[in-house]
Every structure is written in structure tokens, then in C-alpha cells.
TrEMBL record:
The chain crosses the membrane at residues 81-99. Its EC number is 1.3.3.3. GO terms for cellular component: cytoplasm. GO terms for biological process: protoporphyrinogen IX biosynthetic process. GO terms for molecular function: coproporphyrinogen oxidase activity. Keywords: Heme biosynthesis, Membrane, Oxidoreductase, Porphyrin biosynthesis, Transmembrane, Transmembrane helix. This is Oxygen-dependent coproporphyrinogen-III oxidase, mitochondrial. It catalyses: coproporphyrinogen III + O2 + 2 H(+) = protoporphyrinogen IX + 2 CO2 + 2 H2O. It comes from Gasterosteus aculeatus aculeatus (three-spined stickleback).
Length: 450
């Protein structure tokens, strides 16, 4: 049985939270992808059903992976096929555009979804108490406070990241909430030692207070002009972040993060921006998996702007780059930051679209490789690649740096992204002509997968 630890901040939520299906998840289902089972041999399978959330039939969840629990001596098998049909149903299509000099200039764009559809979705956002019933836990901010400021972006973003966590989590076993004395807190759902996932976490954080000088210095280094009052910069930052480390080396590691920053300046005006992305870190190259993953992300991006995917894909390859190794962390995906135009509404719509791709871009790949056998040598290669993952996160990752620089942050949640096990071998280099060498070549020379 996997161990799942769930932590959050609202003191009033001591009772068990009822999880239920929500209307917006009806988009998950299509007639060709109506039933996805991750644990086919379990008496209580985890399923993805039309119009339903991820949930477990009971307090715990069992992940059964026949042929992968041990270290099989056989060759590599490739079982299953990708379920591509459900991806399009999860992407909202409203306009968005990035104002960043390194990528492209501000420009007008056309909305590709009828205005009525966007307005209808915004109306549905208003029923906060009803939406909260489907979360893994009550939100970080008190529900009454959220209802009182339902139209503000910080409320709408908090609701989105809570929904994203609920959509991606598998089960709830134990609730243990934490608080940040300086303001805010977070919700962590972490699974460890499962039969499919060695370590998996989906964290939500909502923090506020005054920026530390170190955090402000990081932002100014990216070109931000921050004018504080009496040396203080009130801020609000929130996001959802997930890293999944599977046991089977043929199931890739996935990471996603979507976040929102808001800073109040001396004259009372607010600076705001969004950031985030989704990226894949396989241990072995699979062109089919890479194509599915990138095409799902491209489909979401294209509904907002045709330049989003190519620009954000390149940005992802540059960002997740281990300079001291001369390698990318994985095969990328999309990454963006400082998204603050053409309007807050359009930028938020784009982030919603991205957040709703995290299930369809990754879960079909998990299902495809669920029963793949693997050898001791393949497991050892996975451990070496995990070592590279650790190096990037601790040396370069901006989110980890910001978290460590924020007083009162929960260190366990910040370091949730690290794998349970990893390996560093002295002067390790795979033999030429092997699948391991093929993977390393891709990491040293990023490819186009679409």
C-alpha cells in the first residue's frame, strides 16, 4: 500500500472532506477514452471516468503493476498504446500573449472561442463553496474570504491551483495541516513507496507578506522595476507544483508548475504576472511518448497563439539546462515566466488551458508502460539520471531558490521535487550504441518532437 501524506493550512478543516465530481471535468471524457484504469488487477481500481475526478474507492489507493514490482531479467517490452483522443477536450481556448523581450513583442490576437463560452465559464467560477467540495482539502484561504473577493485574480488563481491538485492527485489518506507564521501556508499531497510511483507530490502554496531583499533581488535581475514603500514590498504568491518519480524506468518523470505573483507598490498600484510550464524527463527515449506529450501541449498553446508553443518549447529547453553537465534535464515541454499581457484575463485563460493538460499529456504514457519489465542495469541508469535531476533542482531551479529565500517556508514541500533515491557514479558514461547513449545524445542536443 502506498503511503500518502496530505498537509494543508486551514485550521477549520478537521473533518473529512467530501470529494465529488465537478462539472468542469466533463471535458476529460470523450467517447474514445471513457475509462482509464491504472490498477487493472486491484479489486478497487483507480479509474478516470467521464465527468469524474481522480478519486479512490476507499481511504487508500493501490497501484498494481504486474511484472514491474521486482527487477525482471527479461528484455524491454513496450505494451499498450497512447490514448490521444481525450487531450483536446481538456484545453480551454481563449487568447493570451507574452510580453518578454527575449521571446516576442506585444501584439494583438484573436480569441478562438465564442465570447459566450468564456463568459459562461467565468459564471461557473463564482460558485466557490460548491467548487470547494471537490478539492482534496479546503483551500488555503478561508472560503468566506474567497467568496468575499470572488472577482479578484488571486482568488480565481487559488481556485484553479486547488482544482489542478485535485485533478492530479490519486487519494487522500491522512490530513496534517501546516501554517506559515508570516502569512499563508500550503497544501501538500505526497505519496511515497507506491507500487508504480516511488515518490509523487502535488503541492499547493499560497503565501503573502513582504518580499525579502534576496527575493526582490532575484526579480530585479529579470528586469522587474519594484518600488517599495519604506523599504517594504507587500506580495502575494501562489502556485501548484508537482513532480512524479515512477519506480519503473520506462515510465518518465513529469513536472508541472503554474503560479501567480502580485506585488503592491508604493503608490498602491499592483504588478502581476503568471509563470509555469510542464516538462517530461524520460530515462529512455520513446519518440511516440515524446510526440504525444509535446503535441498535447502544442494543442493547448495553439488555441491562444501560434507562436506560444515554439517559443515556450525553446524557453523550456534553455531553462531546464544543466550547464555544468552540458545536458538538458529531460526532453522539455513548455516553460514561460513574467506573463503579464495583453490583459490579466487573457493571461489567466492561457494558464487555465495549460493546467488542464497535465492529466492528458502524462497519464496515457503511464498506462502504456505500466507493465513493462526492466533489468537491474536499466534501474541503475534511472538512478544516475535522477542524480542529474537533483543537481538541476538544487543548483539552478528558480522556484527552489525563491522558496528557500522566503521566511517561514516549509522545507519539506520545497524539496518534495527530489527523488526518493538517486545515484552518482564517478565519471559515468554509457557505452556507445546503447539505449542509454541514445538518451544522452537527445539530452545534449534537444530535438523537435512535433
Amino acid at each position: 500500500m502506498a503511503t500518502i501524506v496530505f498537509c494543508s493550512v486551514n485550521k477549520t478543516a478537521q473533518s473529512t472532506v467530501r470529494r465529488c465530481s465537478m462539472s468542469h471535468l466533463k471535458r476529460l471524457a470523450s467517447s474514445a477514452a471513457s475509462h482509464l484504469t491504472l490498477s487493472p488487477s486491484s479489486s478497487k481500481p483507480l479509474t478516470l471516468l467521464p465527468g469524474s475526478r481522480w478519486l479512490s474507492r476507499g481511504c487508500g489507493v493501490r497501484f498494481v503493476s504486474q511484472g514491474t514490482a521486482g527487477r525482471a531479467a527479461g528484455g524491454r517490452t513496450r505494451k499498450g498504446a497512447l490514448a490521444l483522443s481525450g487531450a483536446a477536450a481538456l484545453t480551454a481556448a481563449v487568447a493570451g500573449f507574452l510580453a518578454n523581450a527575449d521571446h516576442f513583442q506585444r501584439a494583438d490576437m484573436a480569441t478562438k472561442v465564442p465570447r459566450a463560452a468564456a463568459e459562461k465559464e467565468r459564471e461557473q467560477e463564482g460558485d466557490i463553496s460548491q467548487r470547494c467540495r471537490g478539492f482534496m482539502s479546503p483551500p488555503v484561504t478561508d472560503i468566506g474570504v474567497l467568496q468575499g473577493r470572488s472577482g479578484e485574480m488571486r482568488t480565481r488563481m487559488e481556485m484553479l491551483i486547488m482544482e489542478t491538485q485535485a485533478d492530479f492527485c490519486n487519494a487522500l489518506q491522512e490530513v496534517d495541516r501546516w501554517q506559515r507564521n508570516e502569512g499563508g501556508g500550503g497544501i501538500s499531497c505526497v505519496m511515497q513507496d507506491g507500487k508504480v510511483f516511488e515518490k509523487a507530490g502535488v503541492n499547493v502554496s499560497v503565501v503573502f507578506g513582504n518580499l525579502t531583499e534576496e527575493a526582490a533581488r532575484q526579480m530585479r535581475s529579470r528586469g522587474k522595476v519594484l518600488k517599495g514603500k519604506d523599504g517594504k514590498l507587500p506580495f502575494c504568491a501562489m502556485g501548484v507544483s508537482s513532480v512524479i518519480h515512477p519506480k519503473n524506468p520506462h515510465i518518465p518523470t513529469v513536472h508541472f508548475n503554474y503560479r501567480y505573483f502580485e506585488i503592491e507598490e508604493e503608490d498602491g498600484t499592483k504588478q502581476w504576472w503568471f509563470g509555469g510550464g510542464t516538462d517530461l524527463t524520460p530515462i529512455y527515449v520513446s519518440k511516440e511518448d515524446a510526440s504525444h506529450f509535446h503535441n498535447t501541449l502544442k494543442e493547448a498553446c495553439d488555441k491562444h497563439h501560434p507562436q506560444y508553443y515554439p517559443d515556450f518549447k525553446k524557453w523550456c529547453d534553455r531553462y531546464f539546462y544543466i550547464r555544468h553537465r552540458g545536458e538538458t534535464r529531460g526532453i522539455g515541454g513548455i516553460f514561460f515566466d513574467d506573463l503579464d499581457s495583453p490583459s490579466q484575463e487573457e493571461a489567466f485563460d492561457f494558464v487555465k488551458s495549460c493546467a488542464r493538460t497535465v492529466v492528458p499529456c502524462y497519464l496515457p504514457i503511464v498506462r502504456k508502460h505500466l507493465n513493462d519489465s526492466f533489468t537491474d542495469e536499466e534501474k541503475a541508469w534511472q538512478q544516475v539520471r535522477r542524480g542529474r535531476y537533483v543537481e538541476f533542482n538544487l543548483v539552478y531551479d528558480r522556484g527552489v531558490k525563491f522558496g528557500l529565500a522566503t521566511p517561514g517556508s516549509r522545507i519539506e514541500s520545497i524539496l518534495m521535487s527530489l527523488p526518493l533515491t538517486a545515484r552518482w557514479e564517478y565519471m559515468h558514461e554509457p557505452a556507445k550504441g546503447t539505449l542509454e547513449a541514445e538518451m544522452l545524445e537527445v539530452l545534449r542536443n534537444p530535438k523537435e518532437w512535433v
